[in-house]
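Task: fold both queries, return tokens.
Query 1:
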Amino acid sequence: MRGYASGKDDYLKRLRRIEGQVRGLQRMVESDEYCIDVLTQIAAATKALQAVSLGLLDEHLKHCVAQALTLGGEGAQDKVREASDAIARLVRS
């Protein structure tokens, strides 16, 4: 079971909402909307994706990493390294 399983429906709702935002962005560009308005909507979609990312990361740390640490061994080190790499990717984006 994945760490986000308990909130899966909420994550799916949020991702569908973001998908709708992106479709709206496509329509805005097709309609030649004002640049700043498009950029404002891009910022909103980006923030929404960041919120989903942070939620998933939090669930990963609470569930997957914590479980691996409880079990110990090399698997625990791998999970911590994996989480650190994911954090680094999020910070760079």
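Query 1 returned. Query 2:
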Amino acid sequence: MQEEVKDISAEIPQESIPAEPRKEWRLRINYKMITGNLPFILFLAVVALVYIANNHLAEKKIIRINRLSRQIKELKWEYLSVKSDLMFRSKLSEVSKAVEPLGLKELSTPPQRIETAAPNNEQ
């Protein structure tokens, strides 16, 4: 029986048997690794800050665009309202009503043209 056990152990390759116990990942992080990768860690921190700042700027611009588009709509409606009011007030009947208290009246006869004789330059 001992011979059978020896034969079985001879068939197992030595590579599959771990030589030492596995170290946990926490033990692999040490001071040397941190100081060696410090420039890369700082680079990642700067990139993260730039990304956050860019996001804030984009949100501010979107808010400003929305506010300005609302103002444009309000101004457009105000423009159309003032324009229609002006068109209404510039009608002949409305103008005559507005100047009636001043004593001005609409002409009932067409205006007449006064022509003067041209002086003769003949001598």
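Both queries returned. Flag for query 2: The mean pLDDT is 83.
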